[in-house]
Amino acid sequence: QVQLVESGGGLVQPGGSLRLSCAASGFPLNSYDIGWFRQAPGKEREAVSCISNTHGTTYYANSVKGRFTISSDNAENTMYLQMNNLKPEDTAVYYCATTTDFVVDGTTWYQQQFWDYWGQGTQVTVSS
């Protein structure tokens, strides 16, 4: 059974850093494409970053490029999102997801309909 569990969220001041973790079970993390999404209050959920294990590349939303880094540890079967220079607009619930039926690419990774398993989310609040 595919399961994803996020952790690492919290309250941080602007300019600070956090590292989110997504522990996967029921499948090898490197067998599917995996990604991070977020949903801010009153807004739709949006894509943040993705690891395409199929194509061996990573994708980032323009709003986080240069500040966030996605990575994975196959031995731990865990995906990470290192978030630096956090801004108040990064405040959101962060979700990890995987797609088991579709191989994403640069034009599809940010479209949520292709992602079929989701974690429960972890809250990130950036505030002074």
Task: Walk me through the structure.
This protein has strands at residues 3-7, 10-12, 18-25, 33-39, 46-52, 57-60, 68-73, 78-83, 92-99, 117-118, 122-126. The chain is mainly beta and 128 residues long. The strands form 2 sheets. Strands 2, 4, 5, 6, 9, 10 and 11 form a 7-stranded mixed sheet that branches. Strands 1-3-8-7 form a 4-stranded antiparallel sheet, with no helix packed on it. The model has no long low-confidence stretch (mean pLDDT 96).
Tertiary shape: globular
pLDDT averaged residue by residue: 96
Count of helical regions? 0
Number of strands: 11
List low-pLDDT spans. Answer: none
Cα distance spanning the termini: 40 Å
Biggest sheet character: 7 strands, mixed
Instruction: Report the C-alpha radius of gyration, rounded.
Output: 14 Å
- The portion of residues forming beta strands comes to over 45%
Oligomer kind: single chain
Helix percentage range = under 10%
Order of helices and strands: EEEEEEEEEEE
Structural class: mainly beta
Structural key phrases:
7-stranded mixed sheet; 4-stranded antiparallel sheet; 48% strand; mainly beta; 128 residues; globular
List the helices and strands and how they pair.
Layout: E1 3-7, E2 10-12, E3 18-25, E4 33-39, E5 46-52, E6 57-60, E7 68-73, E8 78-83, E9 92-99, E10 117-118, E11 122-126
Parallel strand pairs: 2-11
Antiparallel strand pairs: 1-3, 3-8, 4-5, 4-9, 5-6, 7-8, 9-10, 9-11
Short description:
The chain has strands at residues 3-7, 10-12, 18-25, 33-39, 46-52, 57-60, 68-73, 78-83, 92-99, 117-118, 122-126. It has 128 residues and is mostly beta strands.
